[in-house]
Amino acid sequence: MAAESLGDLERALRDKKNSGNKLLVPYLTAGLGNWVEALHAVIDAGADAVEVGIPFSDPIMDGPIIQEASQKALEAGATPAGILSELRRSSFAVPIAIMTYYNIVHHAGHDRFAKELADCGVSGSIIPDLQLDEAGEWMVSARENGVDNVMMAAPSSSPERLRRLADNSRGFVYGIGLMGVTGVRNSLADSASEIARRLKEYTDKPVLVGVGVSTTEQAVQVSRIADGVIVGSALVQRLLAGGGPQGAFDLMRQFRNALDAG
Amino acid sequence: MSIMGMPSASGRFGEFGGRFVPESLIPACFKLEEAFGEAWADREFTDEYRRILSEYGGRPTPVTELRRFSEQFGIRVFLKREDLAHTGSHKINNVIGQALLTKRMGKTRMIAETGAGQHGVATATAAALLGLDCVIYMGEVDVARQALNVFRMKLLGASVVTVTSGSRTLKDAINEAMREWVASVETTHYCIGSVMGPHPYPFMVREFQRIIGDEAVVQTRGILNGGVPDYVVACVGGGSNAAGTFAGFVDTSAKLVGVEPEGGAAITRGIPGIVHGMRSNLLQDDVGQVLEAYSISAGLDYPGVGPEHSYLSSIGRASYVTAGDDEVLNALQVLSRLEGVIPALEPAHAVAYVIREAGKAIPLGSSVLITMSGRGDKDAESVARILGETS
Ligand SMILES: Cc1ncc(COP(=O)(O)O)c(C=O)c1O
User: Fold this and answer.
1) How many alpha carbons fall within 13 Å on the CB side of residue B108?
2) How many CB pairs under 8 A join A and B?
3) pLDDT tens digits, residue range A1-34?
4) Residue B240: CB within 6 Å of ligand 1?
């Protein structure tokens, strides 16, 4: 792929990967408490990019922790426009990708939403219920506005689909670590390393594994093969428990140190 | 070519339908599409489906002419009696099909969502009949207002999971069933209860329900000297009894009317959106959060609607109207007293529309077929409570 076609998200993550480091991408739900401070805190702790969740009423890919966070954020009045304007007001040292469900995008309109993301400095999108065969229109709008749309690949995806997902993904390729929804798990599923290994046969884009990566040990283990991890529920759990920005910082610092130590 | 034919390769009816689910579920959707396509073309499968529905399910269900009711309202009204099918509603048609398909795909377990509990009971019944494990997801609010059906499911050997997230009704039961399906898709079939969800469900469930309309068109031709009713009316929650009924009449001159509850009128008041794997009309707020539906009937308490209904509405082939709680309660009592048929609250919406519009939108002297999608036993307790409070 020609270098000039790379979006900000992919360029940053490729650079980091090429310098021999493992990537850490935390997820947090926007609209929950003092989330902007928490966002700055995880960046200070060493995140390479952050996935900011725009809460949706019916999050079918999320387990109890992110469901609870989404519901709380919505009850507190979180809206896509409100969240994006908060992002616009700050500047961040690493790329920000939004994670939301397709109806939020569809309702706003593809072009309008992509422009709004770009205006607010967002350089990536992750939409779990917008799989490849339905994603064409959004991929065009996103690309035209410099937003990297990340595709998710599942343990159940066929080899032929994995290749197409990897080809069409921008920013990085999201390997879903297990057959299930987001949540904290006691041990790393075998499928986590396996999806990373399979994806790496098809792409030199950064391959990150998320869903079911909850501890530093799990992050280190899967990053022997993957280029890094996405840590969501473990972080959101800490925020829901009242850990605040400092708690978020401490947790992400542990992940950063563990990944750097290898 | 029928207006209600095959959807496009991507599962579209016009611009509605599709497959908006996480990647993890895509292989299962492909497999199901293929398995259904093969099974539905396989004489052995369709014979078995029809045999069970007749020997066990009580099909064909009769068409009953409502003589006293007709006389009172000046129109000629017939009921398609799905309330007489085994388990007390049309839901049995769909679950026998999907349970047979579950076995054919080599899976051993079915999960399902339920609102009123009718689909849960039907799924548990089919699972018992065919020796499958069964888990039913039901919102906490519905568990409370449909206690009898919860007990029936348990008697039938199913486990019932109470869903406490979101609005704690059908919408959230579907979310939870989908989440569970992602985690168990290797062994488990998700037996969706209406013409909704990702492709191939809306198409497949309509095909399993078209037996309603296919029977009724022959039955009414027999009664009407080869003619068809002027109006064919059915209630619409997700839209399966309506879709199954309409499929038999869509290529005739009959006017098709779907009746939505006032508080869950996805077609009448919603705009296109995406939830539960499909693009269809959806009640949503001004940024795209899905709204909670409200209806006196748990089975219609749903903010979305099957995509084929959005399509039939968009091309003007079917029209969609609403009925409110008060007129529904009235219709339930009128039908009970005049005809000795206690309807479920869901089809009471269709009856309410016909009562309201007889001599207005439905000219005097018209013939009308109403799909009586289920019997009223499950609602007797909550209706008694409401009538006791309000009268
Ligand atoms: C008797 C009855 N009718 C209708 C419905 C609504 O479903 P659908 O619109 O799919 O027919 C239900 C759902 O539970 C039901 O129990």
Assistant:
1) 1
2) 118
3) 444 579 999 999 999 999 999 999 999 999 999 9
4) yes
- Cβ distance A129 to B20 less than 8 Å, yes or no, reads yes
| Number of domains within chain A | 1
A71: in domain: yes
- Residue in the block written with tokens 């805190």: A41
- On whether residue A211 sits in a domain, the answer given is yes
| Ligand 1 contact via B170 beta carbon (within 6 Å) | no
Q: Cβ distance B363 to B214 under 8 Å?
A: no
Evaluate whether ipTM surpasses 0.95: yes
CATH number for B58-89+210-386 (one of 3.30.465.10, 3.40.50.1100, 3.40.50.300, 2.40.37.10): it is 3.40.50.1100
Q: Indicate the CATH number of B12-52+91-201 among 3.40.190.10, 3.40.50.1100, 3.90.25.10, 3.40.50.1000.
A: 3.40.50.1100
A219-234 pLDDT, tens digit each: 999 999 999 999 999 9
Q: Is A51 a catalytic residue?
A: yes
Ligand 1 atom nearest the C-alpha of B195 is: 10
* Residue range B211-258, pLDDT digits in tens: 999 999 999 999 999 999 999 999 999 999 999 999 999 999 999 999
Q: Please report which helix (H) or strand (E) contains residue B253, including its range.
A: none
pLDDT score recorded for residue A4: 52
| B28 contact partners, CB below 8 Å, separation of at least 6 | A156, B181, B185
Q: Give residue limits of the domains in chain B.
A: 12-52+91-201, 58-89+210-386
From chain B, pick out residues whose CB is under 8 angstroms from the CB of A155. Answer: 24
- Count each helix (H run) and each strand (E run) in chain A, helices first: 12, 8
**β-bridge pairing B63-66 and B76-81:** antiparallel
